[in-house]
Amino acid sequence: SALLLFISIMTMFMSGVVAIFEYDLKKIIALSTLSQLGMMMFSISLGLYELAFFHLLTHALFKALLFLCAGILIHGAGNTQDIRSFGGLSLNFPLVTVCMNLANLSLCGVPFLAGFYSKDLIVELACQYSWGIFVLLMMFICLSLTVLYSVRLTYLSFVGPYGGGTLISVCESDYSLVGPVVILSFTSLVSGPILSWLNFPAPVLIFLPVFLKWGALFFVGVSLLVMLSLQGLTYSYKWGAVSKFSGLMWFLPW
Fold it and tell me: Which of 8, 12, 83 is nearest to 44 (CA)?
């Protein structure tokens, strides 16, 4: 279980770091899936099998929503996957923007969305284990990385300056595209408590020190502020070797 713990934490860390330097929309979402799979393996390594399955279910719903929204964006933006060519898409895709940000917030573990119920429970129960400060710190850093790449994706796609892509889209008038997205958005809102009640008939009360109890939300909030303040530097800083190293998935394909 110690080996699985180490591999799962390093998987979460690697996928989070790589996603921050990635510009391909589908790759960013695929890397976030890899990160959440690492979270499930982390839960299993601690012996929390039911929680891993619970996170698998909630993650399936909001990640399906994320991929569908990405598909609509790619289709509507002239079949480009490069988020640098998006920018300001909230004007062309208001409904998809709302739904995709809902899925992103759920992925980050924002309270009372689907991802929060499973993710926060894994974090709080992991805090009760005596694996040491390194494991706890890496876990919180991996949580922060999830917020960092999610905010970056949202900013470059919907909020940031226009990147040269298509200006007019008729995707949102197609109900066969938008219908499933709206349904999955509803499940991303309500599936957390419903699946929690179905999976765990007895409520769980976890006693932790205040700094650990608020640790997850603190790291989420700080990461949000850090990434928002760094967005102006997105095109100006040149990381060079670090960016290349991350873009090549830490040389794993080689």
Answer: 8
- pTM (two decimals): 0.86
Contact yes or no for 171/100 (Cβ under 8 A): no
Contact 36, 59 (CB under 8 A): yes
Question: At 186, which amino acid appears?
Answer: F
227 Cβ contact partners less than 8 Å away, ≥ 6 residues apart: 147, 148, 151, 152, 155
Q: Is the pLDDT of residue 250 over 80?
A: no
Handedness of CA 67, 68, 71, 77 (dihedral sign): negative
Question: Which of 4, 100, 17 lies closest to 52 in space, CA to CA?
Answer: 4
Q: Is the pLDDT of residue 35 over 70?
A: yes
The contacts of residue 46 (CB under 8 Å, 6+ apart) are 1, 5, 125, 126, 129
**Residue 209 CB contacts under 8 Å (≥ 6 apart), including other chains:** none
